[in-house]
Amino acid sequence: MLPSRPLAALRAGFLGFSLLLSGTALAQEAVTIRFVQTNDIDRMSPEKGRGGFAKLATVIKEERAKGNAFFVHSGDTLSPSLLSGFDKGAHIIDILNHMGVDAMVPGNHEFDLGAEAFRARMAEAKFDVLATNIVDGDGMPAHTKADKIVDVQGVKVGFFGLTTEDTPILSSPGAIKFKPTVAAGRDKVKDLRAKGADIVVAVVHTPLEVDMLLARSAGADVILSGHDEHLLAFYDGKVAVTEAESQGNYINVVELSVKKTEKDGKTTVSWTPNFRIIDSATVKPDPEIEAVVKGYEDRLSKELDVEVGVTETPLDSRRATVRGGEAAIGNLVADALRASVGADVAITNGGGLRADKEYQAGQKLTRRDILAEMPFGNTTVLLEVTGDKIKAALENGVSQLRELGGRFPQVSGMVVEVDTKQPPGSRIKSVTINGQPLDPAKTYKLATNDFMARGGDGYRAFADAKQLIDVAASQLMASQVIDYVAKAGKVAPKVEGRVVLR
Are 352 and 85 in contact (CB under 8 A)? Predict the structure, then answer.
């Protein structure tokens, strides 16, 4: 005969009490905790069957149905999307509000549209934004948190967020400051442990080398990273580090099986990870989020799907192309900037071209195409600079060739010869401007974008230059390119030896 429930419970209680008296460890059953991660996603809809918010939403709902699941966003989302050029990222926050983010860290692109836009978007977010190392005025930005702790079946999970300290170079945060990431991470882990966190999760938007420094020294258990756009799952027996590529093309699901054991008044926590990388091409879009996205796409289409001209040559704006060498589309943009302001030369950063696509010869170019390539809302300024400053700027531009840094120079009106075997700072072999050798002492009129003009992407050589056309008088880069293509009707840019890598 089976004992009644009260008797069984009483016996279990006596057993637990006797085990406690004897010093035997008490261990709860393993708790499974899931983190569904995305990062670097600003494209609303799928492309070639992958990515977009609706497919990501399906994975989030499926994982939440299993229990104990957190949707974590590792930053870079307000920009550089096409629509963000119009609404400064408000549509992204609206979509994320519908999806229910559990923790997000700002990425450097959250500041592309300026400090005021960042503050406005944070005020609209109905989820926790973790800005542990960000200082705005006398403290943290309004509507953000330094950390959070969530209890999951007796396991306390602590979250905090770190944003790359290079943001003032990479973006436009204005007076907002960024504390050193590794030091801030160490301090916050200690703080969360002191508050009782059993598992500490760092949601970070930092370069891979910083991720590894955090893994080796900060003391966090899990690091969910963005910024490099790698597809990564790493575990060294102590720390798990993941990154989910970009645009929701792939979704990382990190499962922790966590056990807590108590003995002699001390608690021991152990865990093992399981990684699942989900290809969004295999996922059906969530109808609710798909409808929200469609509303925004429809609003764009009426204005943007208008033909402006035809390219008679192929164009390629893929990341490795525009950041790794001279690109036909880079030449087109640089030529347009130079012509629009009557400059001797033009330099624009390859990382400013963002659509990551190929155009076939004979393809019609629309407003959408061009705005998708230049979504940051940058304007064209005209500077007066000496030849030595131009050379210094070009040295900076080719300093991150191996890393495919976004600062790579796409140029007009000059030919630049680069010795890639030399160390950064010593790679420019020669520069000719309009057929003549660069004169270090001569003054040239140079067209560039406002981001670079204030020293962005490491172009500090431009920061003190005299501005012949300043930001207040400047026009949108994308509009100038649209006008340039529309006036020509047909364009035929090609790689022609403007930047020669040896």
Answer: no
Q: Give residues with Cβ within 8 angstroms of 407, minimum separation 6.
A: 349, 350, 351, 396, 397, 399, 400, 457, 458, 459
**In terms of residues, how long is the chain?**
502
Distance CA 352, CA 354 (A): 6
Dump pLDDT digits (tens) for 456-492.
999 999 999 999 998 878 888 999 999 999 999 999 9
- DSSP E strands in 21-154: the ranges are 26-27, 31-38, 69-73, 103-104, 134-135, 147-152
Is a pLDDT exceeding 90 seen at residue 118?
Answer: yes
What's the CA gap between 358 and 248, in Å, rounded?
A: 20
DSSP three-state, residue 215: helix
Per-residue pLDDT, 26: 59
Would you state the structure tokens that stand for residue 408, as one six-digit string?
Answer: 């790579």
**For residues 64 and 73, is the Cβ–Cβ distance under 8 A?**
no
- The structure's pTM equals 0.76
Percent of the chain residues topping a pLDDT of 70:
95
CA neighbours closer than 13 Å in the CB half-sphere of residue 444: 28
Q: Is 142 left (phi over 0), alpha (psi -120 to 50) or beta?
A: beta
Q: Which residue has the tokens 């549509």?
A: 91
The pLDDT of residue 377 is above 90 = no
At 357, the amino acid letter reads K
